[in-house]
Write a structure and sequence with these properties.
By secondary structure, the chain is α/β, with parallel strands linked by helices. It folds into two domains: 164 residues, Rossmann fold (3-Layer(aba) Sandwich), CATH 3.40.50; 81 residues, no CATH class. It has ten helices and ten strands. The strands form two sheets. The protein has a six-stranded mixed β-sheet, sandwiched between helices. This is Amino acid/amide ABC transporter ATP-binding protein 1, HAAT family. One of its GO terms (molecular function) is ATP binding.
Length: 256
């Protein structure tokens, strides 16, 4: 069953066509990768899914409900979370505080009750803190929970970025190059976390990644964009043998 359906999506910036009549489906419970050369439209696609961009044409459905015109916070409340390619954390806040901010759309208590912090607001704060602590344990960042994010290494900041998205308890997790700028050991750790998120949390994942070894090892299905057009869609084996994809992106040496 498809959890996400993108139909005939077109996105323009003036005379520049970032996405050109793109359609595909992401099945519930799979790891789905978006790949392609730089400037192919991959991040623009995630921006459309998460609500940061509104497409000029086409539609997006999540769990069989249209979300094309919904605000980002509405999509988040439905179960769509996003980790950004460029780290979008609050550097002066601690890891714990950044992850607690990831819970904001789950918070139901009014501002007044939250400000005086008693009764229902206090109970809700405890419940949200428990969920965040589970994410901290899951990502093995207990030792830095009270550390200001801006003082952490790049690899740990990327992990916290993913953790903030996980704090939302998403059904669909959008990961935009979570391994960019990492060394080999950090990449291996992140790949392990992605597998664990998928298997243990049963989360559907849409992944943008340039490391083709990671993409081919982790993905159930792959969509390939080039200059905003969908030029390939299928299993890793089908993509590796797709001549259009080979010519535009993979190259002959990456097809074996």
């Amino acid at each position: 069953m498809g959890i996400l359906e993108v139909k005939n999506l077109t996105l323009r910036f003036g005379g520049v066509v970032a996405l050109d009549d793109v359609s595909y489906e992401v099945k519930e419970g799979e790891i789905f990768s978006l790949i392609g050369p730089n400037g192919a439209g991959k991040t623009s696609m995630l921006n459309c899914i998460s609500g940061l961009y509104r497409p000029n044409e086409g539609s997006i459905q999540f769990k069989d409900s249209p979300i094309t015109n919904l605000k980002p916070y509405k999509r988040a409340s439905l179960g769509i979370a996003r980790a950004f390619q460029n780290i979008e954390l609050f550097p002066h806040l601690s890891v714990l505080d950044n992850l607690m901010l990831g819970r904001h759309v789950r918070m139901k208590t009014g501002v007044l009750a939250g400000g005086v912090f008693f009764g229902k607001a206090q109970r809700e704060e405890i419940e949200h803190r428990e969920k965040v602590e589970q994410v901290i344990d899951f990502l093995e960042i207990e030792h830095i929970r009270n550390t200001p994010v801006g003082t952490l290494s790049y690899g740990l900041q990327k992990r916290v970025e993913v953790g903030r998205a996980l704090s939302l308890e998403p059904d669909l997790l959008l990961l935009d190059e979570p391994m960019a700028g990492m060394n080999t050991e950090e990449k291996e750790d992140m790949a392990r976390y992605i597998i664990d998120i998928h298997e243990e949390m049963q989360t559907t994942i849409v992944l943008i990644e340039h490391d083709m070894g990671v993409v081919m090892d982790l993905s159930d299905h792959i969509a390939v964009l080039d200059f905003g057009k969908l030029i390939g869609y299928g299993t890793p084996n089908e993509i590796q043998n797709n001549q259009k994809v080979i010519e535009a992106y993979l190259g002959e040496e990456n097809t074996v």
